[in-house]
């Protein structure tokens, strides 16, 4: 149910300012419907155990977010919540749902807008068209209560467990459906058909939910390439796709875009043109990363920890000068994945700028955009030890979420990366212990600093996304 939050606003000027509100989506029943033959079609590497991923892992994420962002909804209730086997506190359609206006559940936003019959008719028709629903089934959906209809449109399953269309299990990765750039919202243009319904539902939410009423003119959608409609070679024509895991708002005037497996050059070009025309940012750095599954999005190879600190895969970050010997040069190019970095400016009189490495770019961000007076430091995946660096990057060692500068959350399984954080002076604490200390008053979220919070990850990590992926920040405090 809609929480009338008079103080609601959006603004993301950085990756590390104090996080005040975000959109998340708790694992829904669709995750439990994935079968091995369809897993990769639905962009999953494996099938997951639904009860474990909920109660044993993701629920801790929700509790932690509430302590940091909306403490009144959870303080003093932790034991009661933990002892409730029904998990009613975490279920969007339950009367006991936390219903936070700061840790905002995507399904709740969808429920809110579906209470308007005009919107529900349009959205059911749109989903019906894209999913091939019969007219009779669309009539059944239109007669369904808004909260239950929202659940069905996400999970693809009726109350009687009949599946009427495919689930969208990747919706737990809310980062990919959109990004707030200062006070604008850029909606993704999915590269894979399996994620197209996520985009459709997100569009309806951003354009119709009361939270975003004051930002309708600030919503940005990337148009398709006209050639796609007029030429016959659809399969060879470059797609116009952009997924927001490839975008990072590193400072008020600077956006990073990863040219990756999921984000195309055409969509990147259109995004740059639109953002500069609307004067949203002053510069955009494009990082072309190798087109491979392990580097699916930019935020899978690095994320920011502090003004002067980043966690990164060493092979992506460093500059490797090519040997002058033709044979050795060939071997070196095979060994290293060398990104290309180009920086563009809204001021047409300012020439584009090249960076020799990702680390050189990030040093420039820390020192010049964020004004850090300290030396820029890098924490390497797997503590820069082979094969731990590649193994842990695969399980999202570089995909951490900053709750505020210097306080990040990541998977407990990436032990060598965690050791690298510890070597940089970070306190390592398990989320269960931390929640207990918050509840008893031993520690305070507001005073916590230089901390890596380890999260249970046996099932979540199979889904190929970390906590940076599982968040769509709406508001961060500026420095």
Outline the structure in words:
The chain is an alpha/beta fold. The chain has one domain (19-476): L-arginine/glycine Amidinotransferase, Chain A (5-stranded Propeller). It is built from 16 helices and 18 strands. It is globular, with a radius of gyration of 22 Å. The two termini are 33 Å apart. The model has no long low-confidence stretch (mean pLDDT 91).
In short:
By secondary structure, the chain is an alpha/beta fold.
List keywords for this structure.
479 residues; alpha/beta; L-arginine/glycine Amidinotransferase, Chain A; four-stranded mixed β-sheet; 16 helices; 18 strands; 17% strand
Shape: globular
Gyration radius, to the nearest Å?
22 Å
How many beta-strand elements? 18
Ends distance: 33 Å
Task: List the total number of helices.
Answer: 16
Helix-strand blueprint:
Layout: E1 19-24, H1 36-39, H2 50-69, H3 78-82, E2 103-105, H4 106-114, H5 117-131, H6 135-142, H7 146-155, E3 178-181, E4 184-187, H8 196-208, E5 219-220, H9 226-230, E6 247-251, E7 254-259, H10 265-277, E8 283-288, E9 302-306, E10 309-312, H11 314-317, H12 326-335, E11 340-345, E12 353-355, H13 358-369, E13 377-380, H14 388-394, E14 401-404, E15 407-411, H15 415-423, E16 427-430, H16 431-440, E17 451-455, E18 472-476
Parallel strand pairs: 1-2, 4-5, 7-8, 10-13, 15-17, 16-17
Antiparallel strand pairs: 1-18, 3-4, 6-7, 8-11, 9-10, 11-12, 14-15
Helix pairs in contact: 2-16, 4-7, 5-6, 5-8
């Amino acid at each position: 149910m809609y929480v009338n939050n008079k103080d609601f606003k959006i603004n993301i000027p950085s990756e590390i300012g104090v996080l005040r509100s975000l959109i998340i989506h708790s694992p829904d029943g669709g995750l439990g419907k994935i079968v091995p033959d369809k897993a990769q079609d639905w962009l999953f590497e494996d099938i997951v155990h639904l009860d474990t991923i909920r109660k044993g892992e993701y629920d801790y994420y929700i509790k932690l977010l509430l302590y940091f962002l909306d403490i009144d909804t959870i303080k003093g209730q932790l034991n009661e919540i933990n002892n409730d086997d029904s998990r009613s506190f975490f279920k969007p359609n339950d009367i006991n749902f936390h219903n936070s206006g700061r840790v905002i559940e995507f399904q709740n936003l969808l429920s809110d807008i579906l209470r308007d019959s005009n919107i529900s008719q349009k959205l059911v028709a749109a989903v019906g068209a894209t999913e091939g629903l019969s007219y009779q089934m669309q009539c059944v959906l239109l007669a369904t209560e808004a909260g239950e209809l929202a659940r069905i449109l996400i999970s693809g399953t009726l109350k009687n467990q009949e599946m009427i269309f495919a689930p969208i299990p990747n919706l737990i990765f809310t980062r990919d459906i959109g990004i707030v750039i200062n006070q604008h919202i850029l909606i993704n243009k999915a590269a894979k058909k399996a994620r197209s319904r996520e985009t459709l539902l997100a569009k309806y939410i951003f354009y119709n939910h009361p939270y975003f009423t004051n930002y309708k003119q600030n919503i940005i959608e990337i148009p398709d390439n006209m050639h796609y409609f007029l030429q016959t070679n659809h399969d060879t024509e470059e797609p116009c796709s952009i997924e927001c895991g490839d975008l990072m708002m590193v400072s008020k005037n600077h956006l990073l875009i990863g040219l990756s497996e999921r984000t195309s050059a055409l969509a990147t070009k259109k995004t740059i043109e639109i953002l500069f025309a609307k004067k949203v940012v002053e510069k955009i750095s494009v990082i072309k990363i190798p087109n491979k599954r392990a580097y699916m999005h930019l935020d899978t190879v690095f994320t920011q920890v502090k003004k002067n600190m980043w966690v990164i895969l060493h092979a992506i970050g460093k500059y490797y000068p090519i040997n002058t010997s033709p044979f050795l040069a060939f071997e070196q190019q095979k060994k290293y994945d060398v990104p290309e970095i180009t920086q563009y400016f809204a001021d047409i009189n300012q020439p584009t700028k090249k960076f020799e490495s990702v680390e050189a770019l990030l040093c420039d961000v820390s020192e010049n955009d964020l004004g850090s007076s300290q030396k820029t430091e890098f924490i390497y995946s797997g503590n820069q030890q082979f094969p731990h660096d590649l193994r842990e990057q695969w399980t999202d060692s570089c995909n951490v979420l900053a709750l505020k500068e210097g306080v990040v959350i990541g998977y407990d399984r990436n032990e060598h990366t965690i050791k690298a954080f510890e070597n940089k002076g970070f306190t390592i604490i398990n989320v269960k212990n931390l929640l207990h200390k918050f509840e008893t008053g031993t520690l305070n979220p507001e005073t916590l600093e230089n901390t890596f919070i380890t999260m249970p990850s046996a099932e979540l990590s199979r889904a190929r996304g970390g906590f940076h992926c599982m968040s769509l920040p709406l508001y961060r405090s500026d420095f």
